Amino acid sequence: MAFRDVAVKLISHVYWHRKDEFMYNEDSYPCWTLFAVEEGRFVYGIGEHKGEAGFGDFVICPPHVGFRRRTLESLSFHFLQFVWLSEPSLEEANSWRGKLVIKDIERLASNYHYLKKLTGWDAESTLHKQHMLSDIFRLVAIERELREDLTSETDSLMEKARKYVTDHAYGSLSMSDLAESLGLTPVQLTRRFRRAFSQTPSEFLNELRLTRARHLLEGSTLTLDAIAGNCGFENGFYLSRVFTQKMGMAPSVYRSIYRV
């Protein structure tokens, strides 16, 4: 699909932190609705669209359509409702329903971070939230354009690799074993994953782990060693080194600034 202006207007935004289950197993809404997952996973069904969604995914439901859902683990997510400023064609509207995937998870995590901090609905906060929502849609549109030159085989195999890394991010994970299971060498896996997602498997893994570490620093009193154990890092010292390199500040400083 050719790139088009994906102009949307934000109607409402609510952030849910560590929700163990949805109030209703199925619901419908009067306008377009977006579930953007920061942490955890859930299963969904929207008409013929169904599957699992986690960090890096968001699920869009059109107006007056049943949204079936069930948490698989404690879920932190943004619930956003919006309308199109330029009404899409039926084909375009269908391409925006169900699960959409963002490869640039670093930028996505930044958008989520700011959305979470913008709790008010004054004019300035609303303008900022609108910008974050528009940026998310623009990322999807751009990545769709860039993905057109990839073969379906590459997409399928690397999506499988991405799902495996996501599902096993916080435990013991061997990239060599993953490569072997896909019939690739570690070098081939790294090259193809970078081509598909603009980052290596290890970079993607660290993004997932650091996102969880940030959430635990913000919302818990766990020690750094305990957080490391919950995020798949060897120990608190190694987590501190990686965190400082990536975030530009030590975990203790981050916690003092962003503690919820």
From TrEMBL:
Keyword Transferase: no
InterPro entries assigned: Homeodomain-like_sf, HTH_AraC
SUPFAM superfamilies: Homeodomain-like
HTH araC/xylS-type domain ranges (all copies): 159-257
Pfam families to which the protein is assigned, alphabetical: HTH_18
Key words, A-Z: DNA-binding, Transcription, Transcription regulation
Protein name, per record: AraC family transcriptional regulator
Originating organism: Paenibacillus violae
